[in-house]
Automatic annotation (TrEMBL):
GO cellular component labels: membrane
Main location: membrane
Gene source species: Ananas comosus var. bracteatus (red pineapple)
Record membrane topology: Multi-pass membrane protein
Lineage top rank: taxon: Eukaryota
Protein family (similarity comment): Belongs to the TMEM19 family.
Transmembrane segments: 35-59, 90-108, 176-197, 209-229, 266-286
Name of this chain's protein: Protein PGR
Keywords: Membrane, Transmembrane, Transmembrane helix
Amino acid sequence: MEGLFIRSVAAVALSAAIAARAYKRLSLDLSGAILGFLVMAIHIAAGYRFGALLLVFFFTSSKLTKIGQEKKRLLEEDFKEGGQRNWVQVLANSAIATVLVVVVSAMTRGHGMCLDTKKSDVVTALIGGIIGHYACCNGDTWSSEIGILSKAQPLLVTNFKIVRRGTNGAVTLDGLLAAAAAGFVVGLSYVVTALLTAECASDVAWRQLLVIPIATAAGLLGSLIDSFLGATLQFSGYCNVRKKVVSKRGPTVSRISGMSILDNNAVNAVSVLLTTVLTAFACLYIF
């Protein structure tokens, strides 16, 4: 309990500092900073390795968002200086994982536990789901932020036809490689912090290295699921007035692909949910 108390105090202090910095640097608006503080505090208090997953996603994604802003300003419909995210976007990228880390913390009473089905199938699946969650979030963001700057022509994931940059569901090789790299970084951050802070038997510790290829695959898979949903259930059209790809129909908009069923936040949430579930089952089988 003493370790949990110290971790909780550290969680509040660190989360407050990071949220304030993110707000100052326009990575989050006020609503996003407030919710981000709560989400970060919960993750870090539940376990340093969960906090590491969230922070790696947040910092790397925020950094990539700010690369090539002048080009993105011309291409992105909802471009915001600094990539400023609100509470809805924070929630879409953290809600499921936040619930899972709370459940894991309650089941383990705040003690670190490695992926090990011999000790607990449920906890192993939940931790695997958390890893898949952030591998997906990171993969989707890296893929989008790097893919839109790629010199290669983007292809619609459903039929591989060339489409305009910024079209929902469009992919490039650069973007797909970025998604896999993003998952790799998430897996590596988990392994390092888990081996330093979690309670692993010697014969189980080395198997945690398998998280790295699992997270790499989850980053790529999550990006592909997001792209497929974006190409089919999210509307994309070209506005002849704004000279941009937009996600809403209008008299000056020519349809490119997709239906007006999900918006971008909903697509993110569904892809995260599916990747979380698939990674949880993969960890049950592997560990």
